[in-house]
Amino acid sequence: MISHGTESDILCLKSIKNSLEDPNNYLTYSWNFSNNFEGYICRFNGVECWHPDENRVLNIKLSNMGLKGQFPRGFENCSTITGLDLSFNEFSGPIPADISSMLPFLTSIDLRNNKFTGEIPIALANCTYLNALKLDNNMLTDLCTIGKTDINNMVRRTP
């Protein structure tokens, strides 16, 4: 049993690491789970914690690491994450239809410049705190208008 930190956040990161191809070894060398001191996951590449001495993930920023794979289901175990940046990688497949329940506290999602396919999930309109959504340069269909919420207004285009 892990004595320090939040077990679900550690499980989240383990699951993410195990579900992705990491050809440049950014996660392979940095995400070492054999340490068990408080705040050790806060020292991982691309992981920001609420407090440096506490294993509770605030943001995950894995931009431009050459990562490959589908959107990791393991994110659902990072229950307090507010920011997610997977931009400029080679993620593929659909964005999960249940993303709003997987990551209910997200304020920003950056999935630009990947290979995501399919429809933009209607559930994004249910991300109550979301104020920045970047989906440019993927193979996604339709930016839908959902009730009073227009996903087009959430999408931030980069120059």
Automatic annotation (TrEMBL):
Presence of the UniProt keyword Repeat in the record: yes
Location(s), subcellular: Membrane
Domain Leucine-rich repeat-containing N-terminal plant-type: start-end pairs: 8-50
Top-level taxonomic group: Eukaryota
Chief location bin: membrane
Keyword Repeat (UniProt): yes
Pfam families: LRR_1, LRRNT_2
InterPro entries, per database record: At_inactive_RLKs, Leu-rich_rpt, LRR_dom_sf, LRR_N_plant-typ
Protein's UniProt name: Leucine-rich repeat-containing N-terminal plant-type domain-containing protein
Taxonomic source organism: Trifolium subterraneum (Subterranean clover)
